[in-house]
Structures are given as C-alpha cells and as structure tokens.
Amino acid sequence: MPNQRLFPFPPMHHLLPREIPPAAGLLARAFFSDPLFSHFFPDPAARLGQLEALFAFRLRNALEDAYAPSPALAGLALWELPRGHAGRLNPAALARAVAMAARAGWQPLRRMIRFQRWSLALRATLIRDPYAYLDTLAVAPAFQRQGFARQLLAPLLKIADDLGVPVYLETQNRRNIDIYTHFGFAVVHRTRLPESTVEHYCLLKR
What we know:
44% helix, globular, 18% strand, alpha+beta, 206 residues
C-alpha cells in the first residue's frame, strides 16, 4: 500500500479486489481501438474478451497502484511512484499469467513480451530514477469531458512536484498527446514499434 500521506486528494478511490472485473471491463472498452492493443489483438471479434483477461491480470498484479476517482469507476489510473519500477511479475503471479495467456492467446502474449522488453530498453535511454511513471489512464466513454482525467492525473503530478521528480509516460494514440501536453507534458521521443505501423510517443513532465 502506498504511503497515504503522499496522497492529499481524498476523493481518490484505491481500487479494491472485488472491483477488478468491472475495472478490467472499463479498461477493455476504453482501449478497444487503441493502436497498441489492436496490434496485440488484431481480431476485433475476440479483442474485448482478450483485453478483459489482460487487464484483470494486470490489475491483480498491481492493485496497490490502481486508483479511480470514486467507487463509481468513472475512470482508472495505474501509477508507479519513484523507485517502484521493478518488473511487476512475481512467482505468485505466474499461475495468473498462464491463465491470462490461455484466454488472451499465446501469440498476443509473445507480442506483449517483445514490446515490454523493447519499451523498457528505450525508456532506460530517456530517463533514470527517481521518476514517477503513469502506466495507464482511462476514462469511461460516458464520463469523458467531465474533468475525470484531471482528477486522475492531479494526485500523481502533485506527488511528483512535491518530491521534485519528473513524470514519464508513453502512448501510441496521437489523440492523447493534446491531453497530456495540456497538463505540462512534452514529447521527448517519437518512434515506431519494430515490425509494425504503430507510432510510439514518449512524454515527460519535468
């Protein structure tokens, strides 16, 4: 559990284990047309179920870093605080990883592993600890343009500012860049995923 003294925003809701299925569904719908996840899961007919399995696994493996604006789950953010960027997978999660792959597919899993290795290597050339990392940010379609993205971002930005560290994130959706630049992020690197047409943008807020 993160140190709650670092979180001066009472409205933030720390995701509970029983909320993982609806939260995974929220993320699956939010990222259904995202270029990166379309690359991982190219079959639209199967993609929603595959994404639900993937996000349920990710949330179970990083529950301590998952926050929503309220129990209504209008949106969700996954953060990593400074010096918390070690690989999330641990021996206790291996069984869940196998179950996730059985549902989401082994070929997509191989694509995701290749991407993870590539993106981590790239990140290491762009920034060094200490820094905060915005892993995931999503707002349910019915709640968009109502200030929930700001509510999800503000605590992380405040923590980073108090600690004097930058915030790093990646996106493969060009439309997201305007949102993040509005909050003070700048694109520091742009490239393309190997063997794909997916653009990869690295952003930093100092």
